[in-house]
Amino acid sequence: MAELDQTPVAGNGLLDRRIFLKAGVAGGAALLTAQAGGVEREAWMKMPGAPMSDNGVPSAHEAHVKRLAVSSQPGTTGTGVSRTPLEFLDGLITPSRLHFERHHSGIPDINPDEHRLVIHGMVERPLSFSLEALARYPIKSRIQFLECSGNSGGLIAPEPIQQSCGVLHGLVAASEWGGVPLSVLLDEAGVKPGAKWIIADGADAAMMSRSVPLAKVMDDAIVALYQNGERLRPGNGYPMRLFLPGWEGNACVKWLRTIKVMNQPAMTKDETSKYSDLNEEGIARLFTFPMGVKSIITNPSHGFTMGPAGPYQVSGIAWSGSGRIRRVEVSADGGGSWADAALDEHVLSRCLTRFRSAWRWDGGPAVIMSRATDDAGNVQPTRRAVLEGRANGAFYHYNGIQAWAVSAVGEVTNVYA
Amino acid sequence: MAELDQTPVAGNGLLDRRIFLKAGVAGGAALLTAQAGGVEREAWMKMPGAPMSDNGVPSAHEAHVKRLAVSSQPGTTGTGVSRTPLEFLDGLITPSRLHFERHHSGIPDINPDEHRLVIHGMVERPLSFSLEALARYPIKSRIQFLECSGNSGGLIAPEPIQQSCGVLHGLVAASEWGGVPLSVLLDEAGVKPGAKWIIADGADAAMMSRSVPLAKVMDDAIVALYQNGERLRPGNGYPMRLFLPGWEGNACVKWLRTIKVMNQPAMTKDETSKYSDLNEEGIARLFTFPMGVKSIITNPSHGFTMGPAGPYQVSGIAWSGSGRIRRVEVSADGGGSWADAALDEHVLSRCLTRFRSAWRWDGGPAVIMSRATDDAGNVQPTRRAVLEGRANGAFYHYNGIQAWAVSAVGEVTNVYA
Q1: For residue B314, is pLDDT > 50?
Q2: What ipTM was assigned to the predicted interfaces of this complex?
Q3: What is the per-residue pLDDT across B134-169, written as a single tens digit (0 to 9) for each?
Q4: Are B212 and B264 contacting, i.e. CB atoms less than 8 angstroms apart?
Q5: Which residues pair with B277 in a beta bridge?
Q6: Which segment of A9-18, B186-195, B368-377 scores lowest on mean pLDDT?
Q7: Is A199 helix (H, G, I), strand (E, B) or coil?
Q8: Would the CB atoms of B230 and A33 count as touching at under 8 Å?
């Protein structure tokens, strides 16, 4: 290890990503052991272990890794959210059991044999598809992120909310989404001239409904049937949902039931009373579908306590609704200087990309932050830039740079910097 | 749809993959509906649905999608296997709850705070790593397959075993595996000159132990801590396992406890009495680590019943321990002729790759099969070629072409062809 140059490349101890990729920087973290190999067997080696099972579950020691801040609006069973515990995860895939959820009237108990997808409106042939019928169509399967447009909305608060990374930012996740291109089904129905939008309705009691431009639908929308290899889970739209790569989660209508082809948007309750924001002149911004370029350091983050001064791995996720992540920079001096982070091998379009930096924490106060750039050249803005021109309380589509403060005793908190 | 050329490109109705990618071939599978949009709301739309939860589970309607043929050796709690239900899955990721398992003395209940990874033997500095210490090292995360070398071993039986695809071939799965490169930890310990192998021991009661060439370890072995974004599950090695991309699952020692650096293999019970096969001269083939190039049609497969004659999607998985899948061909006439299948967008190295073909089933008897080629030029062999030169009963590393017969009444069974 001694031969590697560990001269920082940015303020407050950030090390070159090439060093980090080639070798560890942890040094002292490994302890010498006097009697290596002569270690006595632990209790669990002295008896047979648990048997096989038909459905694996996580370790009881990981019971704290669960969806966070599960909350419903008072008086309802299912108008609310649950969040992905980003601070406990690594890599890019989100386990389906931890995928965030946002429901408007709970999770319907749909019988898949009775469920139909109906395509009607401005089409030559109105069609109805059972699950069995859909199974004969080509499936496209890609690993992509899904983000609620309300994600990170708490960051507009005047003072930083002291909550964990997952509570603040956990309305984002990445899965392999597999389904039938909606363009194939619409081609079969025959879209009439003049059609410009579709209206997608869900089969929940709230009948969540959103208007989506036909151009996006014909480009890459799918009727998703599979998530991470298995059928969608009920909380994510079983047996089928609309999936619009890179676009806000709410428009990816769950429990998809009807697609109506139209020449204009429907202006449903779900795109006017919600999921639209006012600018500072009081004008609503409607149909702000694509999610912006964004990154968050997940480790360390709010609620972590650092160990001894020395080398640490700083890790997080970056994504963009416009394409691939090209670059993530990390700062350890509150944005005074920046160093490029290393990106994991899989850098996929419209997907979470894991980044990692090596940081030699000197044991003093520090402010760490990350800044993503996508391959369209979009750069993640500061909090100030995001809020500029917005009315008070406008919280959708927040993608500002997140800063975490490390105190002199190693406590990590949420700060505005 | 009418304008697309659906002339078959290979025997018995296989269609060009470009047609399949551009549009559906299902045509008649979608039903006209008289009153599209006027459909009455189903029962589940008339009441609020289920509330949010901190740990999502699959739909009760998918209860049949579970690990298959869960079996233990009589008199033991945990010497046995459970298999991935490949026939119900799509895409490339295997949900962790359905990842196959193979244990030799059950699943140990390891306390992660007490568990240590010890590196000793031919090293300058024997080292001991807690989970906390490992967290400071760089992590590499990649989506890769894991296959038990005994997978598909049932195909050596003289007569085809009539079992499902998952029962026959379900000792393979793909996950995102994240962990610390073992080369980084060995560099820190300082490997002594003359070292050529490591011996990896597990912390189960069987103390599963395997020898692995140092060259592989320094190339791409990791100490895996994460699977599909969360910590490894107990059945897959919690809190850590060895992961050797492309190599047989048994050598990827679970519950990894010690790594001893050696100048020769240890010839443990787990690599001599098991996980080695005899050739026809009675000589054991030892240390046959890399998994061969292989593919399986998962849908339709044994136990499926076809619907009406007409267009179907044929789908399956292909993988190779040597690298990426370059090509998958599908035959519908028992190998008389072949057509290229379409590969899904993500074609990753040493990973499951999903392939799909369009097949116009004429309602008569047919034999469907797939043949994979990897980017090193290896072509999946026939069953006959695999068995040539092997002693009777030698079942490890079976990668022969799988054939499924479709009967005149649409019943799908396992056949040798």
Answers
A1: yes
A2: 0.94
A3: 988 889 999 999 999 999 999 999 999 999 999 999
A4: no
A5: B285
A6: A9-18
A7: strand
A8: no
Half-sphere exposure (CA, 13 Å, Cβ side) for A364? 6
Residues forming a β-bridge with B222: B181, B243
With CB atoms and an 8 Å threshold, state whether B129 touches A176. no
Token pair 């109506």 is at which residue? A260
How far apart CA B145 and CA B140 sit, in angstroms, is 15
| Residue B374 contacts residue B291 (beta carbons within 8 Å) | no
In our burial notation (b when 16+ CB lie closer than 10 A, e otherwise), range A122-153 reads bbeebbbbbbebbbbbbbbbbbbbbbbbbbbb
What is the separation of C-alpha A28 from the centre of its chain, rounded to a whole number of angstroms? 34
* A101 touching chain B per CB within 8 A: yes
Residue A316 sits at the chain B interface (C-beta within 8 Å): no
Domains of chain A and any CATH numbers: 117-285 (3.90.420.10), 294-415 (2.60.40.650)
Closest CA to B40 of A134, A234, A118: A118
Q: Which helix (H) or strand (E) holds B285?
A: strand B284-285
A192 close contact with B: CB closer than 8 A: no
Note the pLDDT tens digit of each residue in B77-122.
778 899 999 999 999 999 999 999 999 999 999 999 999 999 999 9
DSSP string over A70-98: EEE-TT-SS-EEEE--GGG--SSPPPGGG
Which one, of B71, B108, B115, lies nearest residue B236 by Cα? Answer: B108
- Nearest CB to A178; choose among B90, B106, B116: B90
Interface test with B, best of A3, A6, A136 (most B CBs within 10 A): A136
Distance CA A155, CA A149 (A): 13
Identity of the residue in B47, B49, B239 whose CB atom sits nearest the CB atom of A103: B49
N-term to C-term CA, chain A? 35
* CA pair distance A95, B67, nearest whole angstrom: 18
Among candidate residues B94, B93, B226, the one with its CA nearest the CA of residue A59: B226
Residue with tokens 């009697």: A35
pLDDT tens by residue, B350-392? 999 999 999 999 999 999 999 999 999 999 999 999 999 899 9
Q: How many CA atoms lie within 13 A of B51 on its CB side?
A: 10
Q: Which of residues 62-91 of B touch A (CB under 8 A)?
A: 62, 65-68, 70-72, 76-78, 80-82, 88-91
Q: Residues of A with CB below 8 A from B347's CB?
A: none
Tell if the CB–CB gap between B52 and A39 is shorter than 8 Å: no
Shortest Cα–Cα distance, A109 to chain B (Å): 6
Mean pLDDT for A13-20 is 80
Q: Is the pTM of this model over 0.90?
A: yes
